[in-house]
Amino acid sequence: MIQKGIAQNEIKKHIDASLYTNIPIGIKSKKMEKILSSVSKIRFQDCDPFNHLNNAKYLDYFMNAREDQILENYQLDVFGIAQKEGRGWLVTSNQISYLRPAFTMETVLIDSQLIRFTEKSLLVEMRMWDADRRKLKSLLWANFVHFDFKSTASINHPAAFQDFCNAIVLPVEQASFEERNYYMMQQYKTQAV
Hints:
Helix content is 33%, strand content 28%. It has 193 residues and is α+β, with helices and mostly antiparallel strands. The radius of gyration is 17 Å and the shape is globular.
């Protein structure tokens, strides 16, 4: 959320002018949320004949949720950056665990957090829950690399963006996806499907 004293259009104008090289003043001075959450409804066209969300579609739901969450909470428009600066983040790897099925027309909660970053990369954990956040349905680790579309090469994040990452990163204790997946299954008593 944005500080009440800062006008929305003032922040948007600042972001448009500087994109992600400078973090807006209203965001920089505020303690930012580290875990972002949103809800989605599982759609019929994304499901298999058993009325389960198709495995490949989990990635779409996760990525769409994260894009919406960072735009809403941090005013970070990854598509605007790509269009105006010719830079963005490419997914280099995904590690996903399907723990419980998501069903047609079910409302799910998707939360996400930056768990690690380097000069060139971001590692984001995303989780899909039932609407009451009691049953963990899926766990994803998505690795993104900062990329310049003109030079077709990975590039370092600007210093201001690294400062922004320092403000929002929320590491997890587990060093690998496998350890994290096991921990989450134990924590939430989930049996993999």
